[in-house]
Specification:
22 strands, 15 helices
Length: 585
Amino acid sequence: MQSCESSGDSADDPLSRGLRRRGQPRVVVIGAGLAGLAAAKALLEQGFTNVTVLEASSRIGGRVQSVKLGHATFELGATWIHGSHGNPIYHLAEANGLLEETTDGERSVGRISLYSKNGVACYLTNHGRRIPKDVVEEFSDLYNEVYNLTQEFFRHGKPVNAESQNSVGVFTREEVRNRIRDDPDEPEATKRLKLAMIQQYLKVESCESSSHSMDEVSLSAFGEWTEIPGAHHIIPSGFMRVVELLAEGIPAHVIQLGKPVRCVHWDQASACPWGPEIEPRGEGDHNHDAGEGSQGGEEPPGERQDEEEQWPVVVECEDCEVIPADHVIVTVSLGVLKRQHASFFQPGLPTEKVVAIHRLGIGTTDKIFLEFEEPFWGPECNSLQFVWEDEAESRTLTYPPELWYRKICGFDVLYPPERYGHVLSGWICGEEALVMEKCDDEAVAEICTEMLRQFTGNPNIPKPRRILRSAWGSNPYFRGSYSYTQVGSSGADVEKLAKPLPYTESSKTAQGSSSKQLPGHLLSSKCPEQSLEPNRGSIKPMQVLFSGEATHRKYYSTTHGALLSGQREAARLIEMYQDLFQQGT
């Protein structure tokens, strides 16, 4: 594609011509998660009035999903605010009183995998034995020491040796294993317990990274993920309150729910003028609230003022509606991009962006909430961690489908009980999580109960009175929980994924022809096919922008990464049109 430098004093560049034709650019945001809502809110606050958010599902929030059962709120998706110093999620929650009921136990300054820092983690073996506390502490210190080493490869440019296969899992497993075996004073029985604990810790790590296995996580890139300083926090009233705060500043008519997108047709700079058969959506659209469109004979803001106006992007929805736009901000998950990018964008994405999509990783981390009439665990216990003694020599975290439950690393105790009742939260990730998602509630509850009986050695544990679980992997609108840097990928791939289209440096990086015609069912009667050949001099910049947690190089996998990425893409458009809004047009 040819370079398209916008210039405020050029009367011939496409941006200037577009601004003369209409005062407001039309922006479509695909997805009403944190990234999409943050982008829409930022644009609206800066004077953009022609913004539409298309959400495929029946709710806003994306991978934030708080479910209220009785008096308690359970998080099927995002749970913690990770860090407080400069974290926009934290500041939004704090400023609006969402953390007033957060207990001291729900604030943790360390690496977090528990609901409460109070109490102790009970490490149990499949033979019904509790691993002594001193053994757990010794192993934990050793594991954390090796974990810190995994950060050095990126942060200090430390070379990765061939034996590690550039894998966090392989490096960690072998390093910890060698140190345990080389200890001359350790009894063999204790060594075997610690060797078995390696797999349990790596399962927890895999759940936190949302990878199938830490073997798939890049060692050389692992340290680039950046932790925000300060404590981690839980929001007692539900993480959805943050989503609702973002949505409060967005007019109701802007967000359309139940509106899945089939395809984004971009680079249509000289495609057809839209005829009356395919009417662009504006604030006066019949789906909007009455009275918010035009008044009297005035044309609604953002509507076409030139019958021959040409739109660079057309969003085709599953319900066959087409929405022309100047810019589209795509916030769909990396999992959706992996599955659908070839059909979701026409023309196809540039080769380097496709390669980045394939290189980067996204997995499934699911929660299994079990509610009991009474607790069978002690008041000092904050979690039940499952250690399979027969995995002391194992070098894999993959199980056959019928043994999917072996991937459950343990159950955390939800705290305080006055808020949640007597509830355990189990964690499972990877391909085994997808198998779990296919099982019915009864089967999952039965298997989890049997595991709890086996590991505690208590055959009298009753079945839970209620079960609630997530299913992020099989949800067609997510196809996973969050992203990670897979072996073979790096932060550079995150940057490539985030890069807006069309590229300004060259047209040769795009797959397929940029002059690809719109499908016949999208053509209006005023748009003969011969008019679709693009005029290369009229390419409009930043037609398709990308946001979402997977596009943030330092904060991928987090809610603050998602929010910041949405604000980042909005800022690109705000800067692009700053002259327009400064003139008060």
